[in-house]
Amino acid sequence: MPVVVGIFFIKKLPRSGILILLLVITASIPQLARVLIDNKKVQYIFYNINIPIEITILYLFFKPNIVTRLRSEVLSICYYGSLLFGIFLLFYHHSFSHFLNEWVCVNYLFFTGWVLMLLLEIYERDEVQLHPGIPLFWFILGLFSYCCCTALVFSLWNYIRLNENTLLVNLWIVHDSFNILMYIFFSYGFMCYNRKIDLK
Questions:
Q1: Which DSSP string do the residues of 12-27 spell out, in sequence order?
Q2: Does some domain include residue 116?
Q3: Which domain holds residue 60?
Q4: Distance in angstroms (rounded) separating the CA atoms of residues 49 and 42
Q5: Backbone phi, then psi, for 56, in 5-degree steps?
Q6: How far apart (Å, rounded) are the C-alpha atoms in residues 105 and 82?
Q7: How many domains does the chain have?
Q8: Residue 200 lies in a domain
Q9: Main-chain dihedrals φ then ψ at residue 125, nearest 5 degrees
């Protein structure tokens, strides 16, 4: 849904909107692979490839809007630290077809922190007001709700897979619900570009 809405309004999208659209498009590829490809190892390769792409897009999304020196440095340290952590995990598991859930979990904790840093940045900047009339409000709301849920679920990834016949499997339903909610927020955010002023 957000892909269709984003493409429809693509001529009105500024840099931040284009990045969110790219985020959704790239995330759709491993999701399609899960539906079309029955081989789990191949599916995991698609998901693993998306991990560094995802954090790079979000780094570029947050970087121009977090201008305070300390927070900007924290943002960069998290980004480059994540890439190094991913390289370490690849060597540790000796395989790119092993799903790197640890990397996903760490990244989503970072994303949650980035959202909080951006909110603090906006609070301290008088020229920007965050309200439901601007796309950034919906992008942040979608990211924050989904990232908190994803960090929790993927921290339990191995435990859930070993206990697939328990109620823990219902966590995937919760995760999918937050994923859908994020896409609804993103779609509405794109539609707000008809009548708003956004950050960079």
A1: G--HHHHHHHHHHHHH
A2: yes
A3: 2-194
A4: 11
A5: -70, -45
A6: 11
A7: 1
A8: no
A9: -100, 120
How far apart CA 28 and CA 90 sit, in angstroms, is 23
Task: Say how far apart CA 156 and CA 192 lie, in whole Å.
Answer: 36
Residue 199 lies in a domain: no
Q: What is the 3-state composition of the chain as percent helix, strand, coil, each rounded to the nearest 5?
A: 80, 0, 20
**Number of residues written out for the chain:** 200
113: in domain: yes
- pLDDT tens across the length of the chain (200 residues): 656 665 655 666 788 889 999 999 999 998 888 889 888 888 889 999 999 999 999 999 999 989 899 999 999 999 999 999 999 999 898 878 888 989 999 999 999 999 999 999 888 887 667 788 888 899 999 999 999 888 888 877 767 676 666 666 677 788 888 888 999 999 888 888 776 444 44
CA atoms within 13 A on the CB side of 70: 3
